[in-house]
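pinned: reference chain
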Amino acid sequence: MSSYDQKIALIEWFQGQGMQPIETLQALTSSDSEEQLALSILLAKRFKITGTPTLVIDQQYRINNKAAKSQKEILDIAASLLEE
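pinned: its structure tokens
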């Protein structure tokens, strides 16, 4: 999916949440947003994130709903990894 297609998908999603498309477009086209979006896409590919919920801890461990049965269990696993 191209960057343009991703922006369209985000605009459509936010519109479904009640946000005006022009407001979303303005937010997405700011230089900070462009940089954050590029980094997010890069990290999602690097950690092979294909769905939610997914957490990456310490850029080393990936926890998703296949590894745990509930969001609470995902957070408990994350907390234990952060304590190490």
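why pinned: DSSP finds four helices and two strands in the chain. Residues 1-46 form one domain.
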